[in-house]
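Exercise: predict the fold of this chain.
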Amino acid sequence: MRETYWRNRCIAETLEKSGLVERSGQGMDDIFESTIKEGKGLPDLSGSNDFSVRLKIPAQVKDKNFILFIEKITREKQTTLSFDEIYKLEKIREHQPVTEIEYKRKFLDIGIIERVGKTRGAKYILSHKYYTHAGKIGEHTRIAGLEREQKKTLILNHLKKNKGYLHDLCTAFPELKPMDISNLLQELKNDNKIEHIGSARTGYWKLKI
């Protein structure tokens, strides 16, 4: 899950050599793996500080379909998933930000996740297969389309206060390519929400009254 450190190295090594404890740091991984595999989500460590560890273990099953889906996919694809891989998938399931998905190629190949967006701002969500398996197809549609609609809303908010010159929009949304911004503008135009004033080269976009 993450790199661990001894609070008291001497005590930890003594207990480990005497057989009273397992490998140092293994217990937390076991707890996380157990709760995820039981469909209870991630344990909560938010109450911990530099001097103590406070761990809240969820008791209620949140999404048993998630575990059943993973078991189904791994069985069909004849593959296995490590704890680290399951941990990453659980974070994706809970829509938590995952800056780096080390195993994304494997996840994509076996159909557990899918990519939303085509630029640097692209995100990964559980695949349509999961939502079909769980009977939540509508939720997949909402999640997959949410990011694009959010971008349109941000563009509309920008146009409420500014003339929509393309170079200004590219500066306002650096994570998007100019072509992506142009496509979003065309969609907003087709929705009769904005209009273009002036020439294609020097003109600008504005809200349609």
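Check your answer against the key: Residues 112 and 154 are 30 Å apart (CA to CA).
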